[in-house]
């Protein structure tokens, strides 16, 4: 029932490896850009430690998890001992400090869902958001980065999927489609369930890294250098995986009953998560369990209209990968 149409891969799929890898290469930030990001980070860290000697500044999001394309903004988290009520005060003070140091477009958004200070560095041209005490994001950033070190195909696949999602307008949480973070988890899940598996499940292995944040124990195996050969029994190159990824989300996933779970390396049922009906604004039309905040469904932003958009886009991509003469162009055509 689930497998409406299980497709056989086209015979000439391997000729698409080189063009997909060329797209991947063109998206990777250069060493020069990485150096500029580090330069800005060091400047901000210096300014912050001068004012708050006990605070720590962390990178999270795509600049820290290795899934950042060229020209990404930097997401930073200031870890500081402060009551939630006083976060605004810190953000306003931080904005003052940054402004006095000639950073541009400095804005404290104290009323946003995630309060932040925004800024642009005129020297490097890089924009940056700084939030306070979002430590779980720093940890899930490490988890994603560690997964990326295990097998190069994860980073290749996720770059291509993110590029596709941005080109097709389905990477907009405010419009009911999915975050980049959700897409990377979808890629990790996909590579975990592939047979032979390309990725292990780090949270199911003996933990070598463990921290407790907001009463959540975050533990996983992080000695990923030891897992360098994990994916080698699976010899599928990138084009085949892109094909299979879209085929999976177009025709292989049971949207009515399944929750994807990177934490367990498996599929859970909506029933066991009690994600079977709409509660408040959470509709659970596509279910992606956060690896640490396991009550969070990253698909909760998806509504009855945008689920249709998303599924049509997965089907479009699957059809292109199956039949199109030039998928590497067609896939990324602006919507
Ligand atoms: N994040 C999270 N929970 C979410 C969404 C995001 O914890 N529901 C955290 C993750 O640490 C994620 C970071 O916020 O890495 C940034 O999220 P997002 O903007 O979706 O991802 P980026 O990797 O920064 O992607 P982009 O390159 O599109 O900026
Ligand atoms: Mg980001």
UniProtKB/TrEMBL annotation:
First and last residues shown, out of full length: 392 to 726 of 730
Phylogenetic placement of the source organism: Eukaryota, Viridiplantae, Streptophyta, Embryophyta, Tracheophyta
Domain Poly(A) RNA polymerase mitochondrial-like central palm: 21-148
Transmembrane segment boundaries: none
Name recorded for this polypeptide: RNA uridylyltransferase
Domain of life: Eukaryota
Residue span(s) of domain PAP-associated: 238-296
Family recorded in the similarity comment: Belongs to the DNA polymerase type-B-like family.
Subcellular compartments: Cytoplasm
């Amino acid at each position: 029932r689930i497998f409406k149409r299980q497709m056989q891969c086209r015979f000439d799929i391997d000729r698409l490896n080189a063009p997909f890898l060329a797209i991947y290469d063109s998206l990777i930030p250069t060493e020069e850009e990485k150096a500029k990001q580090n330069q800005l980070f060091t400047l901000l860290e210096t300014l912050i430690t001068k004012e708050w000697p006990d605070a720590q500044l962390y990178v999270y999001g795509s600049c820290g998890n290795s899934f950042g394309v060229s020209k990404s903004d930097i997401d930073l988290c200031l870890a500081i001992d402060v009551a939630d009520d006083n976060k605004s005060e810190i953000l306003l003070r931080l904005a003052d400090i940054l402004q006095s140091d000639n950073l541009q477009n400095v804005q404290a958004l104290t009323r946003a869902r995630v309060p932040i200070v925004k800024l642009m560095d005129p020297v490097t041209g890089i924009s940056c958001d700084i939030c306070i005490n979002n430590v779980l994001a720093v940890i899930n950033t490490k988890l994603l980065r560690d997964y990326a070190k295990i097998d190069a195909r994860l980073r290749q696949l996720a770059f291509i999927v993110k590029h596709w999602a941005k080109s097709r307008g389905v990477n907009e949480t405010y419009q009911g489609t999915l975050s980049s973070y959700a897409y990377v988890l979808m890629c990790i899940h996909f590579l975990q369930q592939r047979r032979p598996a390309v990725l292990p499940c780090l949270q199911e292995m003996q933990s070598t890294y463990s921290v407790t944040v907001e009463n959540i124990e975050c533990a996983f195996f992080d000695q990923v250098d030891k897992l360098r050969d994990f994916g080698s029994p699976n010899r599928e190159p990138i084009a085949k995986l892109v094909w299979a990824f879209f085929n999976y989300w177009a025709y292989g996933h049971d949207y009515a009953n399944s929750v994807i779970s990177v934490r367990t390396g498996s599929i859970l049922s909506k029933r066991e998560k009690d994600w079977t009906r709409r509660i408040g604004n959470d509709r659970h039309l596509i279910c992606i369990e956060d690896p640490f905040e396991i009550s969070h469904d990253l698909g909760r932003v998806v509504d009855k209209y945008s689920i249709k958009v998303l599924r049509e886009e997965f089907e479009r991509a699957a059809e292109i990968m199956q039949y199109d003469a030039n998928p590497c162009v067609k896939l990324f055509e602006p919507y």
